[in-house]
């Protein structure tokens, strides 16, 4: 049995010239002006990704690939191909020997054929290996080809790390610009401006003569109601200006630069092609507008968009290496590594980035990609550390270290935070999807600039009075994670001071103390900030500006965790004789660390929204540097996932993929229906017969008429209309290119010429025009299933082999075809969803 399965797998693995799916395409429309419309033979309808398609140039994302065709059935295919197209007076061209431009490539908004791409790469590697034994030059070429992947990873890590450092520095400066300006150099942010001052005190280390607020510059005073109003108005002005510039640049130059980018990255990594989404214009505009959007004070983060930025870097650098430029499957291996790089520079967590790419983003993740992802994430983290954007020798702004251990009793509140995170994740996903659907189906979606300005105005108006909503998301999380020490002047550390020094703990930390007036005020402000963040994040995520979700979700969880942590701390202080605290929390001891609760809450909420588990725990561990806190993080994260999954198994990225109708076959989703292939295939009962080509009885004119009368992107080839015995499969795109090329470059090819897909041409009258042989562009081994194959097996075949279509036969006779779109529509139908939402705008 094992030998049979091994043989079957080898036959599938060696299949070549896989043909893209036979699908219909009524076109693509969107909400922005000046759109690029794909041609009629696109097999997958595009939907509103980021608002529109903007086609700057054909080389922005993926250039045409050369065919690299390979005939599995004959070792002498190259010699045979030389005479494939008859014996005309001019040199005859065959796609196998002389690849035509465009043959073997994919249209925009189409799905690649993984099997064909991997087969092409094996053939290329086999050829290089064979030639390396012939000469030293060929050997050096083989070595450089093997090294090129590591060199590409090095370049991706360097470029992404440098861009992330620049984004961090610029965002920090522009965020402070809303509050004031540095007199000794306007390019200094608040912290850097006061570093060199000799007039700062420890209690007021943020105040220095070199830094002036806008009220001091305009009104001449920093105190009083008028100064407050001036600062308030300037804060709103800068926020509106930054958000207006961000949405205008996105709309004018790169509509794909908006949003998080992770749902689209997941779709692209599954094999879908979106030209321009990872292009140079998208990279430039997303980098600039990400800084503007974060600086505007909107409830969004830069972590998700940094994954998009890193993937843009990888896609552009792939053009330098032929191996990756001409093979879509190899390119996606690099993009998987780039996703790890994005998380590495976003959180300073190289290992967590690799696990994030493996767990959350990647569709195909071989072992070689794991090693290269690790190397690229390492290089990116080292580059970011060298730039030192925060001036503290750390990779992130909210790096913290806790000193007090946690106790087993605290698992109960940690699990409670996990329950809160799961409920928050479920609430957020449902509310945000409902809001985004309203945006897509109402007039609100036609005015993205006005929407962004309105949300920014509301955010700025409500955020300024509260110091915890006025600061950036990263600063808020850093404040909430902070463990109070003797020298801390934060409001969150506004406890009543100890009477004597014996009440202080070790390592400059303090024993549990009663809450003072400052802490009570901070708790009220945090409670209001929690409500504000919960509501405003729902309508912010999905607007036409770059917007990440990691920081807002972590902020919500960190606020809830800090509130619970302070509550537990006060409970332990006033009731240390309870059985719950007896034995481990004696008076004068540092029992509860509120900052740890904030960290656990942040992980729980982020896990509830994204449904990440392993990668999330590792990311949070790398943030804190404490091995002993892995168990609380694991408990909260798993509880969050279980609670959220009880209400729906989709994370926020899968929900947005489904909302946009992307052709994404979720590998985590199980197919539990007992249908058969014959129930899903097309044509259905009452539909017109399947459009097919015959192997040697159709003329060029008949083939052109068939192609023009349909919108399918591929056609099965059968022996005859009567027998319907399957011979192969041919792409519409390859068919049109080959016929057009034959008419231009071969004498005698006319509409009456016979189109032949066989090795030997059938006998013809002497006066007949020369035949057109197209066996070279035909897939001789298309994937087939029988009509009684269970659909759960068929779905597994599509997922694991990355198929676009599969032909259905009965005793060798062609019955129909199942495409990826058919499967997605069927799965939507059995889930009581609208099947027409798949691949439609």
TrEMBL record:
**InterPro entries for the chain:** CBS_dom, CBS_dom_sf, Cl-channel_core, ClC
Q: Which Pfam families match?
A: CBS, Voltage_CLC
**Which intervals hold domain CBS?**
681-745, 778-835
Any one GO CC term of this protein is: Golgi apparatus
Q: Name one GO molecular function term.
A: voltage-gated chloride channel activity
What CDD domains does this protein's entry cite? CBS_pair_voltage-gated_CLC_euk_bac, ClC_3_like
Major localisation: membrane
Q: Topology versus the membrane, per the UniProt entry?
A: Multi-pass membrane protein
Subcellular location per the Swiss-Prot or TrEMBL entry: Endosome membrane; Membrane
Arranged from A to Z, the UniProt key words for this protein are: CBS domain, Chloride, Endosome, Ion transport, Membrane, Transmembrane, Transmembrane helix, Transport
Transmembrane residues, as ranges? 150-171, 235-257, 278-300, 306-322, 334-358, 408-429, 444-464, 522-543, 549-567, 612-631
Task: Name the family the entry cites.
Answer: Belongs to the chloride channel (TC 2.A.49) family.
This protein's name: Chloride channel protein
Q: Which organism is it from?
A: Xiphophorus maculatus (Southern platyfish)
């Amino acid at each position: 049995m094992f030998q049979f399965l091994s043989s079957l797998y080898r036959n599938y693995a060696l299949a070549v010239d896989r043909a893209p799916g036979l699908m219909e395409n009524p076109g693509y429309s969107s909400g922005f002006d000046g759109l690029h419309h794909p041609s009629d033979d696109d097999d997958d309808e595009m939907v509103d990704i980021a608002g529109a398609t903007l086609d700057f140039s054909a080389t922005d994302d993926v250039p045409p690939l050369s065919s690299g065709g390979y005939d599995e059935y004959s070792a002498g295919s190259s010699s045979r191909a030389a005479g494939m197209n008859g014996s005309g007076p001019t040199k005859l061209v065959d796609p196998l020997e002389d690849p035509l431009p465009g043959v073997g490539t994919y249209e925009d908004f189409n799905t690649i054929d993984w099997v064909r791409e991997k087969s092409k790469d094996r053939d290329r590697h086999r050829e290089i290996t064979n030639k390396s034994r012939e000469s030293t030059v060929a050997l050096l070429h083989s070595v450089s080809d093997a090294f090129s992947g590591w060199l590409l990873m090095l370049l991706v890590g360097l470029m992404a790390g440098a861009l992330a450092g620049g984004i961090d520095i610029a965002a920090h400066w522009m965020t402070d610009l809303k509050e004031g300006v540095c007199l000794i150099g306007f390019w200094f942010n608040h912290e850097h401006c006061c570093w060199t001052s000799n007039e700062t005190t420890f209690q007021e280390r943020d105040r220095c003569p070199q830094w002036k607020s806008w009220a001091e510059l305009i009104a001449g005073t920093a105190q009083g109601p008028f100064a407050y109003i001036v600062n308030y108005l300037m804060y709103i002005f800068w926020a509106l200006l930054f958000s207006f510039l961000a949405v205008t640049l996105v709309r004018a130059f790169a509509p794909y630069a908006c949003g998080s980018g992770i749902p689209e990255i997941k779709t692209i990594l599954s094999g879908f092609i979106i030209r321009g989404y990872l292009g140079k214009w998208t990279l430039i505009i997303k980098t600039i507008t990400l800084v503007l959007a974060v600086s505007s004070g909107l409830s969004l983060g830069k972590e998700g968009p940094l994954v998009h930025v890193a993937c843009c870097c990888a896609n552009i650098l792939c053009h330098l290496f032929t191996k990756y430029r001409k093979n879509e499957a190899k390119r996606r291996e690099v993009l998987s590594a780039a996703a790890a790089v994005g998380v590495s520079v976003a959180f300073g967590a190289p290992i967590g980035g690799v696990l994030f790419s493996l767990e959350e983003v990647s569709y195909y993740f071989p072992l070689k990609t794991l090693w290269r992802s690790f190397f690229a994430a390492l290089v990116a983290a080292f580059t970011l550390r060298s730039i030192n954007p925060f001036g503290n020798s750390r990779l992130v702004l909210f790096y913290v270290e806790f000193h007090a251990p946690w106790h087993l009793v605290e698992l109960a509140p940690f699990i409670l935070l996990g329950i809160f995170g799961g409920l928050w994740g479920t609430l957020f996903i449902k509310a945000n999807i409902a809001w985004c659907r309203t945006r897509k189906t109402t007039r609100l979606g036609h005015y993205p600039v006005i929407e962004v300005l309105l949300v920014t105005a509301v955010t700025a108006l409500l955020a300024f009075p509260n110091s915890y909503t006025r600061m950036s998301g990263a600063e808020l999380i850093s404040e909430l994670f902070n463990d109070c020490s003797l020298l801390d002047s934060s409001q969150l550390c506004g406890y009543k001071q100890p009477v004597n020094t014996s009440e202080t703990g070790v390592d400059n930390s303090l024993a549990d103390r009663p809450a003072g007036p400052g802490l009570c005020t901070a708790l009220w402000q945090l409670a209001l900030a929690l409500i504000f963040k919960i509501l405003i994040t729902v309508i912010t995520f999905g607007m036409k500006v770059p917007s990440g979700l990691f920081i807002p979700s972590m902020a919500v969880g960190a606020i809830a965790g800090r509130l619970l942590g302070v509550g537990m701390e006060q409970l332990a202080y006033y009731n240390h004789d309870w059985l719950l605290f007896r034995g481990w929390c004696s008076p004068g001891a540092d029992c509860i660390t509120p900052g740890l609760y904030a960290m656990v809450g942040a992980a729980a909420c982020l896990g509830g929204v994204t449904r990440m588990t392993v990668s999330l725990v590792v990311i949070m561990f790398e943030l804190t540097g404490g091995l002993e806190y892995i168990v609380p993080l694991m408990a909260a994260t798993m509880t969050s996932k279980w609670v959220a999954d009880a209400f729906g198994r989709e994370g926020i990225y899968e929900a947005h993929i489904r909302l946009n109708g992307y052709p994404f076959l979720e590998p985590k989703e199980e197919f539990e229906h007992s249908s058969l292939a014959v129930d899903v295939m097309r044509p259905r009962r009452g539909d017109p017969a399947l459009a097919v080509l015959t192997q040697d009885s159709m003329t060029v004119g008949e083939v052109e008429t068939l192609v023009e009368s349909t919108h399918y992107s591929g056609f099965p080839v059968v022996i005859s209309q009567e027998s319907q015995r399957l011979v192969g499969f041919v792409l519409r795109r390859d068919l049109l290119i080959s016929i057009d090329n034959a008419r231009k470059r071969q004498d005698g090819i006319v509409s009456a010429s016979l189109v032949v897909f066989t090795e030997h041409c059938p006998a013809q009258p002497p006066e007949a025009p020369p035949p057109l042989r197209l066996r070279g562009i035909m897939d001789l081994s298309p994937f087939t299933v029988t009509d009684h194959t269970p659909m759960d097996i068929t779905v597994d075949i599509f997922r694991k082999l990355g198929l676009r279509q599969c032909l259905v036969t009965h005793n060798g006779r062609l019955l129909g075809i199942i495409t990826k779109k058919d499967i997605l529509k069927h799965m939507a139908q059995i889930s009581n969803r609208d099947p027409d939402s798949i691949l439609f705008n």
